[in-house]
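URGENT: need a sanity check before tomorrow's submission.

F., can you look over the DUF819 domain-containing protein record below? I want to be sure the sequence and structure line up before it goes out.
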Amino acid sequence: MITDGFLYLGVLLGLAACIVFVSQRGRSRFFRYVPGFVLMYLGTAALNTAGLFGESDSVESTGGSVQDALLPAMILLLLFKCNIRQIVKLGPKLLLTYAVTALSIVAGFVVAFLFLHGALDDGASKALGALAASWTGGSANMVAVQGVVHAPENVFGYVLIVDTVIYSLWLLVMFGSVGFSERFNRWTKAKTASFEQQETAGEEEGRMDLTSLMTLIGFSLFASAAATWAGEQLPEVGDVINSTTWTILIVSVLGLVIAVTPFARTAGSSELAMIMLYLIIGIIASESDFSSLTDAPLYLLVGVVVMVVHAGVMVVYAKLTRTELFSLAVASTANIGGVASAPVVASAYNRQLVPVGVLFALIGAFAGTFLGLTTVQILSVV
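Structure tokens as predicted:
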């Protein structure tokens, strides 16, 4: 049983290193559908269920302090590639399609919660809000919302399973949509848009070296500390807007500002953010176990309802606005899958459209956290 804080962090980082090594160097298709961070959560939770992590002040204080320090820094680094000027170039129709896609997912959570909340756990609204953040942004947004609302660890484990299963199935559906896109476009009477190839931030990155890594580590952690201090000085509003919310808002705005400057091209920001994400997920998972995993199917049903509502809204929107299937598929994948999968689905339609998928996903990297917090607020009053 581990009760020492340093050993605790060492085990988490060691597990993360093994998962990243195998997933990056392995040839199995398994890792295309099950992201490494999910394995990190499941593996850490399994170790905790087996009794590896003991309850001690050292472990709890170490994990909490590290998570509080790394969360704002991670969000800041991830937003380095979210160049608002490139996003504006997408045009109003594509931006509207993305907005409707994201809002349809939030509406799906509201509908599912209305029908099933009586059978869900007390903290389900918080966990589902975290899942909404993931499905309108990405894993980092899910972790950010969890850091604000503190959903019960076991329930958070359920929604992570839902995230993995639904994401995998939905990605297959989006790939399959290429085959009937022409028929769908004829049905909606869509005029196939001639999308201009977009330039994406990060293509001019230099070589990752000691200077770039030290610069990013030092700046991101300093910004995290400064934003945390500033957030503690601002007033709390309701149950959602607290010091952590203010901190995340501050680093999110700062990230958007930096994204349009040459500093955003400093090499290594995405890689460093992923290291932080793995460690944060490990800390969260170390407080959960699989003792109540039989409740997960109920949360899977919630996920299915959300997807049905999402798909229904998007089909109606496409018919009313004569929108082509490409926009719907890439916007949906950018929300639910994030930057890792949206470009892949876009390339299945046309390789020149890959930057559109990237920019869609980058919008979610900023908006997902706040959409997730909004979902928590709505579900709490339903």
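My own read: The chain has one domain: 76-268+292-381. Residues 76-268+292-381 form one domain. If you see anything odd, call me.
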